[in-house]
Amino acid sequence: MQTHTPTTPFGRRTMSLGMMASQAVAKTVPEGAQVQKWQVFHTIREARDLIGATDRALAILNALLSFHPETELSGDGELIVWPSNEQLMARANGMPATTLRRHLAVLVDCGLIIRRDSPNGKRFARKGRGGQVEQAYGFDLAPIVARAEEFEELADAVRAEKNAFRLAKERLTLLRRDVVKLIETGIEENVPGNWGRVQQTYQAIVGRLPRSAPRQLIEDICCDLHGLYTEILEVLESFAKTQNPDANESHSGRHIQNSNPDSISESEEGSRKENEAGGGAAENDNLRSLPKRELPLGIVLDACPDVKDLVPGGEIRHWRDFLAAAEVARPLLGVSPSAWREACEAMGEVQAAITLAAILQRSDQINSAGGYLRSLTDKAREGKFSTWPMVMALLRAKLDAGKRAELSGDRGELATSDASDSAPGKLEVSEALLRSLKKPSGGRG
Fold first, then answer.
1. Cα separation, 40 vs 50, whole angstroms
2. Is 355 exposed, middle or buried (0-12, 13-18, 19+ CB in 10 A)?
3. What's the distance, Cα to Cα, between the start and end of the chain in Å?
4. What pLDDT sits at residue 262?
5. Where are the chain's structural domains?
6. Which of 39, 130, 180, 322 has its CA at 20 to 30 Å from residue 244's CA atom?
7. Which residues form the Plasmid replication protein C C-terminal domain (predicted)?
8. Residue 438 neighbours by CB under 8 Å, 6+ apart
9. What pLDDT, in 10s, does the model give residues 153-171?
10. 173/21 Cα distance (integer angstroms)
């Protein structure tokens, strides 16, 4: 007797045009078409985001494929499996029944399987006398065979996107490293240029990068960074070509953001004469003698260990942790939001945070932290303030305390002194830092 293949679901489940489209695709399976079921499952798993399948839905699909006795799915073979919900739940690692039904619906909506429901909704197979299946009611796997090539194309697209994303992230990392180190080179080698503005440009570019960024945004940021990198590289290469190794004085080359290189020495000479006439030459010379690079986070934390107490766990690994600690320190010191905002505008957020950490370290010696910060902010606007002297003074005091402790040998007295609360018994610093500490401190805030 001729049997009828059902196309609509049992019970209250409604029929949709998407289900009809999936059934139409299933009818297009070429004769003799065969696919390895676990290979095509791996392909579906790779392309699941484009297909619309979930992890739980794929776990159920894996269980359904395990009920098919053959390792290959053939277009001219039996592609309907009829496991009960209890059997599916067992092979899906004990998935709850409600979750099972919800994700079976996801597989149907994605066009990965087709429901072939019996008149009473039960799943079973009717076999003939020879044991062959005459009629089966369950889940039809024919769409997997019919769409195998489509799944492979989708998986290739996902692989290509992942590879492009990986390359974009690699390029971003390399560009960030090159730009930062080239800026440091320009500052340390005294290459003429407005390096502060270059650093601000770099921070503005990378500041657009969220924690989780799409590939297109990463590529846009890479384009901006590459333009900045090219400009810096041209300046450094041009300056290097103008250098005479036998001369004592270096000649100025191309100037960043200055179209007239010959005017550099004249403007510097003019400003020097004006400063000397105004009586501020000594202070400005002290500021110019300070290192041009940014203070390393490790040195700041050695000089201002009290700021570590303001973060959970007492550990600061990145500048963002340091900035978060500064936000906590501000109200504790009684610094108003307006004073803090003005300090960040005049010094920059990181430098203002370092200043606040130094004030916190010396809070027992400062009557009004807010007034002191405003005074330093005014000096920063005039270009007469740097955080280097503050940090070096704290390190010098720490170093002197350590030396006195070694000479006296009195560990009990060391444990009760205020200086020893934040200093280890023996302070190890680099030779470059020791040379900096021996210099006369100038331009203190």
1. 15
2. buried
3. 100
4. 38
5. 17-146, 166-259, 290-438
6. 180
7. 296-396
8. none
9. 999 999 999 999 999 999 9
10. 46
Letter string b/e over residues 36-48, b meaning 16 or more CB atoms within 10 A of that residue's CB: ebeebbebbbbbb
Please, what is the Cα angle at 35 between 58 and 130, to 5 degrees? Answer: 100
Average pLDDT score over residue span 401-419? 57
Q: Read off the pLDDT band of 250 (50, 70, 90).
A: very low
How many other C-beta atoms lie within 10 A of the C-beta of residue 348? 18
Question: Which two tokens mark 426?
Answer: 């023996």
**Do residues 56 and 98 touch, judged by C-beta distance below 8 A?**
no
pLDDT at site 249: 43
Token digits for 112? 């990965």
Say whether pLDDT at 243 is over 80: no
Q: What does the H/E/C string look like for 241-292?
A: HHCCCCCCCCCCCCEECECCCCHHHHHHHHHHHHHHHHCCHHHHHHHHHCCC
Phi, psi of 372 (to 5 degrees): -65, -40
Q: Annotate 94-159 with DSSP letters as a single string.
A: S--HHHHHHHHHHHHHTTS-EEE--TTS--EEEE-TTS-EEEEEEEE-HHHHHTHHHHHHHHHHHH
DSSP secondary structure string for all residues of 50-62? HHT--HHHHHHHH
Backbone Cα Rg of the chain: 36
77: three-class secondary structure by DSSP: coil
DSSP labels, 182-213: HHHHHHHTT-SB-HHHHHHHHHHHHTT--SS-
Amino acid at 265: S
Question: What does the pLDDT read at residue 267?
Answer: 36
Token digits for 34?
Answer: 């065969």
* Beta pairing class for 114-116 and 34-36: unpaired
- Per-residue burial over 202-236, b if 16 or more Cβ lie within 10 Å, else e, is beebbeeeeeebeeeebbebbebbeebbebbeebb
State both tokens at 13.
Answer: 């489940």
pLDDT tens digits, 321-380: 899 899 889 888 888 888 899 999 998 999 999 999 999 998 888 888 888 999 999 998
Distance CA 307, CA 303 (A): 10
CA–CA dist 103, 81 (Å, integer): 17
Place of tokens 């704290």: 394
